[in-house]
C-alpha cells in the first residue's frame, strides 16, 4: 500500500507543483509530514527529518523536488530503493506528459503563421530574461573586478564564434581563468 500512496502523493505534487522545487516544498511537507496516508499508522517523516532533506537537497546536485521525492520514497517505504524510484517517477511523470503533448502540438503546427509569430516574439523575451538574471548576479560579491570578467567574456565569445572552439571547452577554460585570476 505504501508504494501506491507514494505514487499518488508524488503524482499530485508533480501535477500541481508549479513554480519549481521551492514552490513544491509546501506540498511535499503536507504529504510527507502532515498526512497519515491510507493504510499507514503515521506520516512518512517528522518535521526534523523534513528540514534535514531540505538541507541535504541544497547540497546535492539536482532539483529539490526530485531530491526530496527520492529521499521521502526511500524512507517511507522502509529504506527501499523501489520507494525512491516510484516517488521520483511519479513527481516527474506530469512534466514528461506535458512536454510530450506540447511538443507534438508544436511539431504538428510548426508551419502555422500564428505559432511562428508566437515563437519569434518569445525569443527576445527569453534572451531578456537570461540577461536580466545575469545582470542581477553581477554584483561585487560575485565579480570583484568587472574588467577581468568582461575580458574573460569577450575572449570566450571570440573563441566560440570566430575560432570555432567547442563551447564546453571554452566554459572550462573560462572557469579555470576566473578561478586563477580571482
Description:
The structure is a single chain. The longest helix has 28 residues, at 81-108. With 182 residues, the chain is mostly helical. The chain has helices spanning 2-16, 21-34, 47-59, 64-76, 81-108, 113-137, 146-161, 167-181. The chain is extended, with a radius of gyration of 22 Å.
List the helices and strands and how they pair.
Blueprint: H1 2-16, H2 21-34, H3 47-59, H4 64-76, H5 81-108, H6 113-137, H7 146-161, H8 167-181
Helix pairs in contact: 1-2, 1-5, 2-4, 3-4, 4-5, 7-8
Helix content: over 70%
Percentage of β-strand residues: under 5%
State mean pLDDT (0 to 100 scale).
87
Radius of gyration of CA atoms, rounded to a whole number: 22 Å
Strand segment tally: 0
Unreliable runs, pLDDT <50, ≥5 residues?
A: none
Class inferred from helices and paired strands = mainly alpha
Q: For the terminal residues, how far apart are their CA atoms?
A: 55 Å
What composes the largest sheet? none
**Number of helical regions:** 8
Amino acid at each position: 500500500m505504501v508504494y501506491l500512496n507514494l505514487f499518488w502523493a508524488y503524482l499530485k505534487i508533480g501535477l500541481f507543483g508549479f513554480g519549481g522545487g521551492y514552490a513544491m516544498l509546501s506540498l511535499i511537507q503536507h504529504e510527507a509530514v502532515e498526512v497519515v496516508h491510507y493504510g499507514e499508522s503515521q506520516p512518512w517523516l517528522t518535521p526534523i527529518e523534513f528540514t534535514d532533506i531540505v538541507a541535504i537537497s541544497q547540497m546535492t546536485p539536482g532539483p529539490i523536488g526530485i531530491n526530496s521525492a527520492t529521499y521521502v520514497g526511500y524512507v517511507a517505504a522502509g529504506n527501499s530503493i523501489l520507494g525512491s524510484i516510484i516517488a521520483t517517477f511519479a513527481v516527474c511523470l506530469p512534466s514528461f506528459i506535458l512536454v510530450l503533448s506540447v511538443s507534438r502540438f508544436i511539431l504538428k503546427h510548426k508551419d502555422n503563421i500564428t505559432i511562428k509569430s508566437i515563437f519569434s516574439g518569445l525569443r527576445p523575451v527569453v534572451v531578456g530574461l537570461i540577461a536580466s538574471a545575469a545582470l542581477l548576479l553581477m554584483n561585487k560579491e560575485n565579480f570583484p573586478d568587472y574588467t577581468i570578467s568582461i575580458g574573460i567574456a569577450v575572449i570566450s565569445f571570440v573563441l566560440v564564434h570566430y575560432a570555432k572552439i567547442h563551447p564546453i571547452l571554452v566554459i572550462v577554460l573560462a572557469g579555470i581563468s576566473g578561478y586563477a585570476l580571482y
